[in-house]
Amino acid sequence: MNGLARIWLLGCLILPGLAWGEAPVAIPALSAQVTDLTATLAVDQIASLETSLAKIEQDKGAQVAILLLPTTQPETIEQFGIRLAEAWKLGRWRVNDGVIVIVAKDDHRARIEVGRALEGAIPDVVAKRIVAETLAPRLKADDYAGGLQATVAALATAIGGEALPPPAAQQAAGAAEDNKFAFLFLALIFGAVLRSLLGLVGALLAAVVAGWLAWSIFASWLAALIAAAITLLFSYARGGGRGWSAGGSGGSFGGGFSGSTGGGGFSGGGGEFGGGGASGNW
Amino acid sequence: MRIRVFALLLAVVALLSGCGYNQIQINDEAVNAAWSEVLNQYKRRADLIPNLVAVVQGYAAHEKEVLTKVTEARASVAGLKATPELVNDEAAFAKFQKAQAELGGALARLLVVSENYPQLKADANFRDLQAQLEGTENRIAVARNRYIKAVQDYNVSVRTFPNSLTAMAMSWKTKANFTVEDEKAISAPPTIKFDAPAAK
Fold it and tell me: What's the whole-model pTM score?
């Protein structure tokens, strides 16, 4: 026990030391699709890139962003890339369809970081080819805007071939339905509570509420009857208190649903990255 | 009666989460998920090797030593049982890590040697495999980092005060993590031999 305690205390001393040993490059704030920390691109070039990137999101829902920065030292571009991806959370929550193009100008190194859902549409081999054959030659010729524009076009083609869930505008209706489903589930649980408080009247009340909810979701009397019957059965079932343990803390879904680009702002939707993609020099 | 049972249940749930029971369960599951991802990516790397060896053999058949090393290292990795239970067994975990590190080293040497063969480097098949291998190595690095963080969270939740009593009562132990020597071996550059045969 003594030895264990000592190791733990040692860990307390070492961990902050490791974190502060070498200050890595700070993650820039995400406010637009194109972030240029090197002042390489002209305003109209940024605008035209952003138009192309916004179009990908409108068409497919996938979020693609570009970052130009001087250097990623002391980290490699891969280490910086995954840190950036974890901070920006590009791509929709649970869909994970984000892509980041990183150009480290002074390092002469570029990387395409690919979100989990797009690892099929943009496998490492394709990402490598885009970096080596589309991006790198143009960067070598100092044509940053052209290289990035061609890269975006190549990414758009690759993403276009993938079957992704439809973009946010078409999904708004779905979210409301989800809320009603949650209410239906609540009605099921409160049925048991109501029945223990009010007896048969409570159970019937819950059944009627569940039936009405089901009717408004499915627009079908059959579904309403089934929901009402299930609620009635559930509230009369012995040990109706089961299912309460499901209320554990829901984890950290910090991403939120701010995936849309409406109103000029741009923020990640909560997508995850697993280190997919490829890097290259020029 | 029903209400009393319900109240008792509520009290038990509240007490258990007070002792960190739920928190430890959540962290334990996070460690399992992170470990599965690590295994998944190691498997992905192992699956790439036969093709890679075949392509390199086509151009550099006389690099027997390097090729044999890779094949042997892969065989020794495949021989180990990579189960989720590995994280609870320090010795087996260390052995698994050693085998994977050896495979990583052998692969790095193979890629260094292949630099000597312009025709091999120009082969489209080889370039694709190399891109896949690079991507997989990066995924392994990411998965390992996430595993390290998950184990850190778990170990902290098992060791900090009220939870440590729960952990003791259930005899849950801390989980194995990647060791420092291991990290050192990986960050060390592979040795390059300059007496290697000249390029064709």
Answer: 0.69
